[in-house]
Amino acid sequence: MNTHIATTTNTIMFPKACTLCLSRKNVQLFAGVLVCDQCQENIRLTNPSIFPANDETEQKAQD
Q1: Helix, strand and coil in the chain, % to nearest 5
Q2: Burial of 51 (0-12, 13-18, 19+ CB in 10 A)
Q3: Distance between CA atoms of residues 52 and 58, nearest Å
Q4: pTM of the shown model
Q5: Measured between alpha carbons, how far is 32 from 54 in angstroms, rounded to an integer?
Q6: How many CB atoms lie within 10 A of CB 15?
Q7: How far is 44 from 19, CA to CA, in rounded Å?
Q8: What is the pLDDT along the chain (63 residues), one digit of tens a residue?
Q9: Strands, DSSP E only, in the chain?
Q10: Nearest alpha-carbon partner for 35 in 59, 11, 9, 50
């Protein structure tokens, strides 16, 4: 019988939480930060120029 007790310190939670709001729904890596779709939309509304810059950065990383 296993007597090891699982705790949050030794358990990996998937999917990982959004860095900004801790939501676990639709989390994606964006500009090096894990963000959910709602936070990504908020970023899009407040900083529209960041999305083309992120696309350019990702393209250079793939090359």
Answers
A1: 35, 10, 55
A2: middle
A3: 10
A4: 0.56
A5: 9
A6: 13
A7: 16
A8: 555 555 555 555 667 899 999 999 889 888 788 999 999 999 889 988 876 766 666 667 676
A9: 28-30, 33-35
A10: 50
Place of tokens 């860095």: 19
Sort residue 24 into left (φ over 0), alpha (ψ -120 to 50) or beta: alpha
Q: And the tokens for 3?
A: 């007597």
**Beta bridge pairs of residue 34:** 29
Separation between Cα atoms, residue 25 and residue 38, nearest integer Å: 9
